[in-house]
Amino acid sequence: MKPRSYQLEMLEESLRRNIIVACISLKQYRAVLRIAAELERSPADKLVWFLAPTVALAEQQFNVISSQIPAFQTRFLSGADNVDHWSDQWMWDEVLHNVRIVVSTHQILLDALTHGFLGLARISLLVFDEAHHCARSHPYNRIMKEFYKPHISAASEGGPHILGLSASPTTKTGGLQTLEQNMNSISRTPKFHREEMLQYVYLPSLVRLDYTASVLATSSAPVLRSLGEVFAALDIKKDPYVLKLEADGSANAQRQLKKALLSDKTHSRDEIRNLYNKAVDIYHELGPWAAEFYIVSCIAKLQKRDQGSFCDFAARDHEEDTYVRAALSSIRIPPDTCSFQGNDKQISPKMQRLVNFLIEETGPDFIGLMFVKTRAAVAVLAHLLSIHPVLQNRVKVSTFVGQSTSTKRKASIGELLDVKLQRETLDDLRYGRRNLVIATTVLEEGIDVSACNIVICFERPANLRSFIQRRGRARKSGSKFVIMQEAQKDNVPVSGWQELEEEMKRLYMDHTRSLQEIHDLEAVEEDNRCFQVETTGAKITLENAVPHLYHFCATLPKSQYVDFRPEFSIADYDDDSFTAKVFLPNAVDASVREACSSARWATERFAKRDAAFEAYVALYHAGLVNDHLLPLPSYDRLAAEMYAAVEQRVALVDVSEQHNPWVEIAQAWEAEPFLHQMNVTVQRESQKPIEMVMFCPRQVPQMGSFDLYWDANRIFQVVVTRGSPAPYAHGHLALARQITASLLSSVFPSRMSPGRDDFPILFEPSLERAERQSWIQSVEGHRPAKEVFEGQPTRQEFGLIRDLSQNGVPHVYHEVLYGRPEPLANNDINGEDTVFLKVTRLPKRADFLHPIPAQNAGLTGSGYKYLPASACEMDQLPFSYSQFALFIPSIMHVLEIHMVAQHLCTNLLLSILFKDLASVVTAISASKARERTNYQRLEFIGDSVLKLFTSITLMAEHGNWHEGFLSHKKDHIVSNTRLAAAAQETGLGKYILTRPFTGNKWRPLYNSDLVKNQAKGTREMSTKTLADVVEALIGAAYLDGGVEKALACIKVFLPEVSWLPLSAQHQSLYNAVPHDVKPPPRFIQLEELIGYTFTQKAPLIDAMTHPSYSGPNAGMSYQRLEFLGDAILDNIVVNTVFSRAAHLPHHSMHTIRTALVNANFLAFLCLQFHISESRSELVEDATTGTFHPVETRIPLYLWHFMRTSSADVRRAQHACAARFDALREQIRNALEHGDAYPWALLSRLEAEKFFSDIVEAVLGAVYIDSLGSIPACEAVLERFGLLAYLRRALDEKVRLLHPKEEVGVLAGNEKVKPFKLSTEAED
To answer: Cβ-count burial of 888 within 10 angstroms (0-12 exposed, 13-18 middle, 19+ buried)?
Structure first.
């Protein structure tokens, strides 16, 4: 599209100064022109930011701009992107990297500026769509007042350019000057090319559609009348909300009760009242049939939805839902209520007038837009027109109403429209699939709608702005703008609006005004108090303090039955001034839980703002909000986002090739004057051991003993012991190399490099040095087998038998036979052969570290063969040495992985001083490496140790953090993402064993090759493997030396955390506890129940305080202690499993832990855990009439001691206790005697989370008070019965797998499909 002259005029004006373009024609294209021009002249690091008042409008503008300016990256931001969760600067930096144009709603930019993620210095052009909103406290005006104007006052280079777009900048006297002042701009409309503009802008003809009002008889709407009677009969004292407040009894509940009774308003009553009022409006506007249809449709839609889940409005609960349903179900609905014939009795005169007009106007080219005031009327009117006998084939109707991405939008029972279905509405209109859209005021401004030839206002426009913007939708030549008015009542001439519009345009045309006049008008006195963080520029003011405080409370850990909104208390004084105090939930640290306004105020509103301001500043100074004045990331956000860490963690990364210790050995041959000796014994029962000596220029680690698998039946044990270093002579070294080469050549001749013997490690028989020369001479070469075996052979041990007819294939000798053996009786072989050898084929494999699978046992060459001695020759080297030579690759591999582990211990893990090298080998062995052991069980315990240490450290370091902050930080520290990064940062990857040893490609190593070829390549490795190995090494350190070594290992990989000795952490936690706090008297029995007497009572009080509690001595809720207790419980269970059943595979260990820390299981323990106290009853003797006491015992359960101010919590406790009573014996019997864990029975308890939470919180309290005594915590778990069941489960091998997982195991690779069991009733 070529720009027209009047558009270029506005572009030039915009490039010179800040302007508000007052013209409806092609606003989007004007913006595109201006943005493109700005991008051409602004630096590459500057942004253009386009602001729109609604998500729908912003998205539409984004589509236009991104398609029109494809050379630059454009980004659309809305609440659906979870922008409010972008709480770190790096997130914004990443999102805006390489982006030049941003399109968003106003609140996105305001929040980014408020929290210092973005400065106006980064923006070169700000475009305000629908700029007339820039007034009062609208985000547009706040951006200009709080950021733009202070910025241009302080910045020498000025601020961003401003472009405002509006069809109607003002409709009030003096409003234009105010708008210009707010936007620091001049309002402009084309002056020099105005005539050209009018050629392309069509003004519609104005049509007044009068209708005559008539009084409709209520008898024509019996359903409406019945609804009114139902509402009138409602008794507020029976309302569930009122009953709930009466049962609560707290001061806050009583205040709310009084308010409800005085106002006659409750959630349920409001819903029914609103339904009735909407139906009455529809009755008058559209007629009785429409009102009846609306009521019946709302009730039908309500009844279709599941009980208790049909709405998300207000604070609706199950009781209120049931109450509303019951009330509406009593409405009398005649059978033919919704039958429509379109006669005058069914519709109103106004509706009939509209129908007649549409019949006249609808034709092939008809494109219409109708504005209706309410969403309910939109839905009913659209349905009525679509079924009207005359119009149903003429109009294709769709609807469009306001929508929001906010999750806080509340639904109601009077809502019939589903906004999800209107996504294609405007496209349907544009492409002719629909020809009439019925909309609310949402389509008045901004959103691009196809030009219409009929625009109808079903009600009179509310103001001049609505009049202008609605009329602007009728842009086709010859279009009509229709306003429906009741005859004689609405007789206000619309021509007056046209005259006012012309006056407004003349004001725009005043080209002599300047910005100086605007600045002279700024004389508004207001409270500009603010708090600003210098490092980021984030600020908080009295105006935004209250929503900030609500947002902070919304990030607290979610808890059922708890309202986490801040509460305000207002105090008034004789001089009519006010002060306020704000109270935050008890999940917030007590030191910042309350705040008061700093001064007296003339209004309650400003007093509340002041108190909220003081509270938020205190939260910042306490470190509970960051330098962007945003709450620290909460646990609930972590579930959806976790910094997006888990989702963003790549599956594979490049790490260094596995460390090759043989290179250092090869280099040592040039420098070391000593040879280090290792004695190697290969032994097997009923067989003489093979005694060998291994030489190396460096001391190698102790290898202990390990098994080698010759075949499915014969297993050899290798024992390696360390000798002493000794100097060596050149002659000795040459002999050792010769012997090693002879050994390897006997079994690997094709794998040897001819003439090379510079091996990194050397082997010799365990003989005196003087004997070795004669030994090598005696074992070299071959002899004809016939020569050896004719007569009676005198050798004690024979060498390998080589079949000369098969190119010398080696065989193992078993027996000599003189005469043809029975298996060869019928074979056609040389009859002269009389000596035969019974042999087996020498194994081809070089891997003897892994057992031969049973299915492969018959494929290993174990079958006997009979070879004629005349066709064979025998090695002089005894078979035992050839057999040892076959074992050399396996022995070298075991040595290699131990040297890798030793290198890790003497470098990266030097501070840990590992004693058990074998555990380090296990920790670095991935399962795919197929070593004798792998890291999985060590990872199991290391994971628990790391989580415990992290929880303790965070608790001690951040004494005022609530559980949400703690959980988020802990999960970030121990996440696989962070641990994998730690492994990469420290270079751990090169020590991890992932390549399985098979021996298939094994070749002897040579020093010259090792020294020459030291290329440092890379390999791909799973980030999960990297993280697991870190945890496995922590577990190995813990088993090697307890908490001190585990902590030392953690410090290596996570140095960013201040890891202090546990004793110091325990003391810090203990010191932070309020001392000399007096517990409720009843807590003496609680200590008796737990079996632990607290030196300081505060932790016990906190452990039993539900987040809903707001009474005296509130302290903290149990959430922080539950966070700590969760880690303690996990660690105790893991340690018990490891100490009693270390042989278990890791997946079994995980299953056990899952069952023992399961919330339903803990809830059962809580529900049954009790002591009893005596109770006396007086019983009358029937004979004497005297009384005597009878003592009984009543139980005191743990959950009885939980402090709460919520009646709902108490009701939930008792309801669960009733289910417990019904299931107690079945569950107890299953736990004490059953062979399977009672998953299904426990789930039937339907226990709320607080039951398991207080068990873990008690553990946390005991741990703190006992200065970190795990035995004290174990004693508590013994009393609960948890450890007893754990021991039984281990000893008796109780099946702990969840039924769903058991089905998966049984199904194997088969697909599991759900099916429904039919009942007799269904049959």
So the answer is: buried
